[in-house]
Specification:
- There is one protein chain.
- This protein has 136 residues and is an alpha+beta fold.
- The chain has a single domain (3-135), classed as Roll (Pnp Oxidase, Chain A).
- The chain contains four helices and six strands, in the order αβββαββααβ.
- It has a six-stranded antiparallel barrel.
- Strand 2 and strand 3 (56-60) form a beta hairpin.
- The protein is globular and about 35 Å long.
Length: 136
């Protein structure tokens, strides 16, 4: 199944069930992030795994443990103003990539509640970028 069809199925389920989805993993917590493409300039909505820390959604650019960043990482760097759907709430946010100790703490918080992410980390030497989605 093409990735866009897979994502669209998750988006449809998310919107039909107040943010609850049955996939891709049983412990998934997802937000929908509408962003603008870095190269295309086209608006797109993607389901992203998130963890709420200190009242803000954080998203993690793991790409399943791939040695390369996901395309959406570059979108957020180029166009940090996004729309977030979290449960039944929709809000505007600005994505900010975390660095150093702040990034490390957010990564440890994710792995503490979702140990499967440690498996992704074991697949690569890449430090996974973390973005905080601050409401605006």
């Amino acid at each position: 199944m093409p990735e866009t069809s897979f994502n669209q199925g998750i988006i449809d389920e998310f919107r039909a069930n107040a943010g609850i989805v049955s996939r891709p993993y049983p412990d998934s917590t997802l937000v929908l992030v509408t962003m603008r493409g870095a190269k295309s300039g086209r608006e797109m909505t993607l389901p992203l795994e998130f963890l709420e820390i200190d009242g803000a959604a954080h998203v993690y650019a793991t790409r399943g443990g791939s040695p390369r960043h996901p395309a959406w990482y570059f979108n957020l760097l180029a166009n940090p103003d996004v729309t977030v759907e979290q449960g039944t709430e929709t809000y505007r946010a600005r994505a900010r990539e975390l660095k150093g100790a702040e990034r490390d703490a957010a990564w440890r918080a994710l792995v503490a509640v979702k140990p499967r992410f440690a498996e992704y980390e074991a697949k690569t030497d890449r430090a996974f970028p973390v973005f905080r989605l601050d409401r605006v």
